[in-house]
Write a structure and sequence with these properties.
832 residues; mainly alpha; 3-stranded antiparallel sheet; two-stranded parallel ribbon
Length: 832
């Protein structure tokens, strides 16, 4: 309802019932619908008026534009007419250019013929130069021919010497072959000798390396032993590091638990403040409620009727109660429930804090014990000293020791790997020694064979050299001389051939050049005749057109021919503009007729006024429509929610009744959980009374408290005890310490038997009793011990934790625990 946009609603509409507000909103929506229809009619009328005025404004604006366009066209016509003289001159220029264009082919032909004459003249000059060069070459070759004829006798002597030397060449070839064989034998001998020396040196080097490796390999057993010890130490350090890391994690957990305890302690303090505040509020509310009850009882007193408190029929002094605010039973229950909730949270927080403190103490104690044990082990191994007393220092020490150990292992591993490679090298060296020795043996044989071959070739060479002529030292000198003779002979023959060919070429070139000279002279004469005819024709045309023989006029016009198209286009464009302007003026005059320009500002103002009226109505309609649409949506949702609320209210009432019954908020104050526990407790009390009857000599009998308590926590599970000596029932809280111990022992025994009977095969064979005996007198103590011995005789073991001297004397089997301080203790077993 708060979101509804009220229009003419009453001022106190928000305080009226929802049904009344729905009725008012429904009526308002009907009025809003009628108002919307009226605004819509006005909006349509305003839109029609606006469109009519705007159409007229557009028509007047277009007519004004037509009138202005007519004025622009007339002004343009005047401008074009003023340019007529300029375009007449342009027309004359175009005619001259067109005349020049008709003569252009003859003029171009004249230029071509003149260029041909110049080219022929240049070519004739070139031919004359070529004739001179060819004549000179012919004379030079004739002189060369005479010189070659004088050298013919030397050529004949060279051919004779060449024939004689060719017959002597086989003997020189044999000497060369023997020298090559001797050189090859000497080279082979030298190579074998060098290889033999190198192999012997290699054997010496291999023996030296083998001895050095043997010395290194002798260290391998000691390194292996050291590595084994380091690995054993490394494994212990890794295990120690894991233990230190675990202790560090536990220490971190202790720090986190300490922080949690601090937070829970603060939260418990806050809950204590809340409990105190809530308890005060509840007490004040309950006192007010009780005062209201007294006031109600006083108001109900009437003469002659009994007082509901004392039963008297006379009421001389009724209670005087101050005027206090009314407090309902529901308020009391709610306050009580809130108080119990906060107390439960306080109890839970307190229990959690106690458990956390106990857990923290245990964790610290175990951490100290484990750290001390680990530190002792480190000291025994001489890894730590007396200065190492903190966990971080121990952690750093372990990390350093482990890093050193790993570094040493890596170093020794590397040394062993090196030694392994050296052992492989030694095996390789031994194989190389065997191979090298075999090669030395074979080289010694080859060395002897090479020495014999060298001596044989030397003897043969000496014999052949004695029969050779002394002109040439060897075959190479002979071959070089023969090659030189052949070269000179070939050069002479080639020179003769080249001279003969050059003489033939020179004669042919002279004949060709003379023929070209005659042809060019005839061509130049014909071309000059053609030039004279064209020049006469062009001179006659110029004289007829301009009455002069000056060629510059024609040449000037020909140079401007490229502007002919542009000038023709300018003339055509000017003529088209004159025609278009005249046609446009005629068209505008037909459209305008007798219309005059219109003042548009007044009409624009009227259109703007009509648009504002239309927009204002549109805005009013939009806002009213949005409000009506929004309120319609709200009205629909309100009606739906109102119906849903009625349905949910009925369901909630039923659920509240069920929850009150299950949670114990009803008058019986007995919830489902306590109801189930109450049924189980009845069975436990039946068994407990059997033990209590024996322990109390039939004096006490336990039974459930039947009346409901003030709170849920004291309802349903409260136990009363029937005292046969006085014949009355009273609360178990009134029992003395010894009586309470007997009752608690009976309940504990009964709880074990009931669990054993209901759990299907579970046997509880051991029972521990922690303290409680110190509050018993001698008779009660003897009775309790008798009951425990009776239970023990039924195949159960009973363990008693106590400092009572009488028990120490009467129990045969004992485990004594003696404190030693610093969280340590010793135990001893005592047997009869």
């Amino acid at each position: 309802m708060k979101q509804v946009q009220w229009l003419d609603a009453p001022a106190d509409i928000a305080n009226q019932p929802v049904s009344d507000q729905i009725a008012v909103l429904t009526a308002q929506q009907a009025q809003a619908t009628a108002a919307l229809k009226d605004i819509q009619k006005q909006q349509l009328t305003a839109q029609t008026n606006y469109e009519t005025a705007n159409t007229q404004l557009s028509n007047d604006a277009r007519m004004n534009d037509q009138i202005m366009g007519l004025e622009r066209q007339k002004q343009q016509q005047i401008t074009l007419q003023s340019q007529q003289d300029q375009y007449r001159q342009l027309q004359q220029q175009i005619e001259h250019l067109m005349w020049a264009n008709t003569l252009k082919p003859q003029y171009d032909r004249l230029q071509e013929l003149q260029a041909d004459v110049e080219a022929d003249q240049k070519q004739l000059t070139t031919i004359l130069v070529a004739i001179n060069r060819s004549s000179k070459r012919q004379a030079d070759q004739q002189a060369t021919q005479q010189q070659l004829q004088r050298q013919q006798s030397s050529q004949d002597q060279r051919l004779h010497d060449q024939t004689i030397l060719v017959r002597q060449r086989p003997a020189f070839q044999k000497v060369a072959a023997l020298k090559d064989q001797l050189t090859s034998a000497q080279t082979t001998f030298a190579k074998i000798n060098d290889h033999l020396t190198a192999q012997k040196q290699q054997i010496a080097d291999l023996n030296q390396r083998s001895n050095q490796l043997a010395e290194k390999l002798a260290e391998r057993p000691a390194i292996s032993d050291s590595l084994a010890q380091l690995r054993q130490t490394g494994e212990w350090l890794l295990n120690a590091k894991k233990q230190v890391d675990q202790l560090t994690d536990r220490q971190t957990g202790i720090q986190q638990l300490t922080e949690q305890i601090n937070r829970d302690s603060k939260r418990l303090d806050d809950l204590a403040v809340q409990v105190t505040s809530q308890q005060t509020a509840y007490d004040q509310l309950r006192n007010t409620w009780l005062s209201n009850q007294i006031a109600n009882l006083v108001d109900q007193l009437a003469p002659g009727t009994p007082c509901p408190v004392c039963g008297s029929r006379t009421h001389p002094s009724p209670a005087q109660v101050a005027d206090l605010p009314q407090v309902s039973d529901t308020q009391i229950k709610q306050a009580e429930q809130q108080l119990q909730t906060i107390k439960s949270r306080q109890a839970g927080a307190s229990s959690k804090l106690s458990e956390e403190n106990k857990h923290l103490s245990d964790q610290k104690q175990r951490l100290e014990q484990d750290f001390a044990a680990l530190l002792t082990e480190f000291k025994q191994r001489e890894v730590a000293n007396e200065e190492t007393q903190s966990l971080p220092a121990l952690s750093q020490l372990v990390a350093n020791q482990l890093a050193d150990n790993q570094n040493q292992q890596q170093l020794l591993d590397k040394q062993l790997s090196d030694l392994k490679r050296k052992a492989q090298q030694q095996e390789t060296i031994q194989r190389q020694l065997e191979t090298s020795q075999k090669q030395v043996d074979q080289l010694q044989v080859d060395h002897q064979d090479a020495q014999s071959a060298r001596q044989k070739y030397q003897v043969q060479l000496n014999d052949v050299q004695e029969s050779l002529p002394a002109d040439f030292a060897n075959l190479q000198e002979l071959d070089d001389h023969l090659a030189e003779l052949k070269r000179l002979s070939a050069n002479f023959d080639q020179a003769v051939s080249d001279n003969r060919q050059a003489l033939q070429n020179a004669a042919a070139e002279l004949a060709t050049a003379n023929g070209k000279k005659v042809t060019l002279n005839r061509s130049m004469a014909d071309t000059k005749n053609k030039i004279a005819k064209i020049q006469n024709a062009l001179t006659t045309a110029i004289n007829q057109q301009f009455h002069t023989t000056d060629w510059h006029i024609l040449q000037e016009l020909l140079s401007q021919l490229d502007t002919l198209d542009k000038k023709q286009a300018q003339l055509v464009d000017y003529q088209d503009q004159l025609k278009n302007v005249a046609a446009a003026i005629t068209t505008y005059q037909k459209i305008i007729g007798d219309h005059q320009p219109v003042d548009l500002d007044a009409k624009k103002a009227r259109v703007a006024q009509l648009a504002a009226i239309r927009d204002e109505l549109t805005d009013r309609y939009s806002k009213a429509y949005d409000v009506a649409l929004f309120n319609n949506d709200r009205l629909k949702r309100i009606k739906q929610n109102d119906a849903a609320i009625h349905d949910q209210l009925e369901q909630t009432t039923e659920l509240e009744q069920l929850v009150q019954t299950v949670s114990g908020d009803s008058d019986a104050k007995l919830g489902l959980e306590r109801y189930v526990l109450r049924a189980e407790l009845i069975e436990i009390l039946q068994v407990a009374n059997e033990h209590l009857k024996q322990l109390s000599s039939g004096r006490y009998f336990l039974q459930l408290h039947k009346e409901a308590g003030t709170y849920q926590k004291d309802t349903g599970l409260e136990i009363d005890v029937y005292d046969d000596n006085v014949g009355q029932t009273r609360s178990v809280h009134t029992l003395s310490g010894g009586e309470s111990f007997i009752a608690a022992l009976s309940l504990a025994l009964a709880l074990g038997e009931v669990i054993q009977n209901e759990s299907g095969g579970i046997s509880i064979d051991t029972l521990f009793v922690d303290e409680g005996f110190g509050s018993l007198d001698q008779e009660s103590l003897a009775m309790a011990m008798g009951a425990l011995e009776n239970i023990e005789s039924n195949s159960r073991m009973i363990g008693i934790i106590s400092h009572v001297t009488m028990l120490q004397e009467s129990i045969p089997y004992q485990i004594k625990v003696q404190a030693q301080g610093q969280g340590k203790s010793t135990t001893s077993v005592i047997r009869p």
